[in-house]
Specification:
With about 400 residues, the chain is mainly alpha-helical. Helix content is about 60%, strand content about 0%. It has one domain (about 30-315): Hypothetical protein af1432 (Orthogonal Bundle).
């Protein structure tokens, strides 16, 4: 690792782990490297291979899943952390963990779970909260504790990479992080802020690539959107006869380069202005120190709106949304009516007659499923529904 900036998180000065592990943070690996490895070796991380990014994971082997998306976010995060002299290991770890809590079928699955919970007067499903639950409770691998026993800095990044946490979500997170005060009312480290923007860069650009490859987006439509239009003008000038598959990749690649360059340039200006000499000053600052320039932020918002209207709500995607929503809701209603089907889940035997606890266990069980597992479980239980 290169020399760290004064405002970077110093791996030699970690606030530690909830469960003491004598000797675990000595030797060759720094504490945040160990956290990264624990994420990679977790069951929840492996399951991301079969969880939806935009397209259900059974549709096309070359389209992105939550796993490949998370890896792409981690790669962008590491590069930007290096450029800003930040703790690369911490940034990469937060990036790899940021989507662990997603349900099957992406945001469609989350919406369906939220509908089921709201119908029972309960709060909506939140994938960031579920990620926190995975790394503190649900992953059960180690002899001495449940969860992954991650460092304070990693947990903080997972909890706050999208900004300070307030209200009911903060209360729920505090119940999970009983051994630590993660200072949820403040911003996260610069490393976690990098991971958050890397997520924005990755999914917006790669969703364009996947949408083009799936035939749901067109190059002509993208010419009306500022960010991809700039990339297309460059490509047309440099390679006027480029085949469509290469053109799709080039659009994504050039947008990524432009977005990364913008973040690095603008963030360096913010950091110079702040003149921070510690990570604590980054956390206490009134606004993020890692950001897009206002002009680029507007361009990205335009692209987001375009993708929502033309990809995420495309008629083909909507048909799949209807089917996957039915799978989630059918399973939730079935388990709620017959909780004995989940009697092997921890706590269910005691929660049979407690509708609130029962709904939480059902939510955890469904959220842990991959797309494939949810489809197969629905087929097994109902034997008359297929997603195709």
């Amino acid at each position: 690792m290169s020399t760290l900036a004064l405002y970077a998180v110093d791996p030699s000065n970690t606030r530690g782990r909830a469960h003491r592990e004598p000797g675990s943070d000595g030797g060759e690996r720094a504490p945040h490297q160990r956290d990264r490895d624990r994420i990679i070796h977790s069951r929840a991380f492996r399951k991301l291979l079969y969880k939806t990014q935009v397209f259900v994971s059974d549709e096309n082997d070359t389209l992105r899943t939550r796993l490949t998306h998370s890896m792409e976010v981690a790669q962008i995060t590491r590069d930007m952390c290096r450029a800003l002299s930040l703790n690369e290991d911490l940034g990469e770890t937060v990036a790899l963990a940021h989507d662990l809590g997603h349900s099957p079928f992406g945001h469609t699955g989350e919406d369906a779970l939220s509908d089921c919970l709201n119908a029972r007067g309960l709060p909506s499903f939140n994938h960031n909260l579920h990620t926190a639950k995975i790394v503190t409770v649900l992953e059960q691998r180690y002899a001495a504790y449940n969860g992954l026993n991650l460092c304070w800095e990693t947990l903080e990044g997972i909890a706050k990479h999208n900004g300070p946490v307030h209200g009911d979500l903060a209360t729920d997170m505090e119940r999970l992080f009983t051994s630590f005060d993660l200072e949820l009312h403040t911003h996260a480290s610069a490393e976690a802020q990098v991971a958050a923007l890397s997520d924005d860069i990755a999914y917006n650009t790669h969703d364009v690539d996947d949408g083009l490859r799936a035939g749901l987006l067109s190059f002509d439509a993208l010419r009306d959107i500022a960010l991809p239009a700039r990339a297309l003008r460059e490509i047309d000038a440099d390679y006027p006869d480029l085949p469509a598959d290469k053109r799709a990749f080039e659009v994504a690649r050039r947008m990524i380069s432009e977005l990364i360059g913008d973040v690095l340039s603008y963030s360096r200006g913010l950091l110079r202005e702040l003149q921070a000499t510690s990570a604590a000053q980054i956390r206490a600052h009134r606004q993020p120190v890692i950001a897009f320039s206002p002009t680029m932020y507007d361009d990205l918002q335009e692209l987001r709106a375009f993708l929502f209207a033309n990809l995420y709500r495309h008629p083909y995607v909507n048909r799949r949304r209807h089917k996957t929503t039915k799978i989630i809701k059918d399973l939730f209603e079935l388990y709620d009516a017959r909780p004995s089907l989940l009697v092997s889940e921890k706590g269910m035997a005691e929660a049979m007659d407690d509708p609130v606890v029962r709904a939480g266990i059902i939510t955890d069980s469904i959220a842990s499923m991959t797309d494939k597992a949810a489809i197969e479980e629905h087929r097994r239980q109902f034997d008359l529904y297929a997603i195709d």
